Amino acid sequence: MKKIIFFLFAGVFTLSAFSQTWVTLTRTEPAAPEITLTCSDNRQVSFAMGLPGFFSTLITENGTNYQRISIQGYGATGATGEPEIPVITQRIAVPDCSGITYSVKVTGTQTLKGYTVYPVPDYQLNSEEVMEEVFTLNPLA
Fold first, then answer.
1. Can you tell me the distance from the alpha carbon of 64 to that of 40, in angstroms, rounded to the nearest whole number?
2. What is the spatial distance between Cα 20 and Cα 56, in angstroms, rounded to a whole number?
3. By Cβ atoms counted within 10 A, which residue in 21, 42, 117, 131 is the most buried?
4. Residue 85, domain member (yes or no)
């Protein structure tokens, strides 16, 4: 059973990998997000993050074109039927202390128009008892 699921996911990944388009933000060639440690001591940890671009895959469902966007090496978040938004996560070691504070400083933004972001799918067992992605749209999201 595990081998079937692995081969199914490997096949889906392989097919989608060839149909992806790189959308450049700062680099013309595909690249992972850049996370640079700028300070780390016993009082603070700070880092800078840059997103050079992302992948977009065109998927048509019920006559509507959606873009499924992804960031190399990272996952996505959202509730089933809501837009599937890629997220960048970074683990930070925090010493044992009474509390922490954090802040986020956005130093730049870019608005891209013309995207209908693919929704987070549902997963169901098919007749062969293999998990299968099922298109699910929450029209209110």
1. 47
2. 5
3. 117
4. yes
139 part of a folded domain: no
With b for 16 or more beta-carbon neighbours within 10 A and e for fewer, the 28-49 pattern comes to: eeeeebeeeeeeeeeeebeeee
| pLDDT-above-90 percentage for the chain | 60
Burial 84-98 (b: 16+ CB within 10 A, else e): bebeeeeeeeeeeee
- How many structural domains comprise the chain? 1
85-134 per-position pLDDT tens digit: 999 988 887 777 777 888 888 988 999 999 999 999 999 999 999 999 99
Q: Which residue has the higher pLDDT, 13 or 95?
A: 95
Domain membership of residue 111 as a residue range: 2-134
Q: Is residue 141 part of a domain?
A: no
Distance CA 92, CA 46 (A): 10
Whole-prediction pTM? 0.76
CA distance 39 to 47: 7
Measured distance CA(111)–CA(62) in Å, rounded = 27
In a domain, 121, yes or no: yes
- Residue 117's identity, in one-letter code, is V
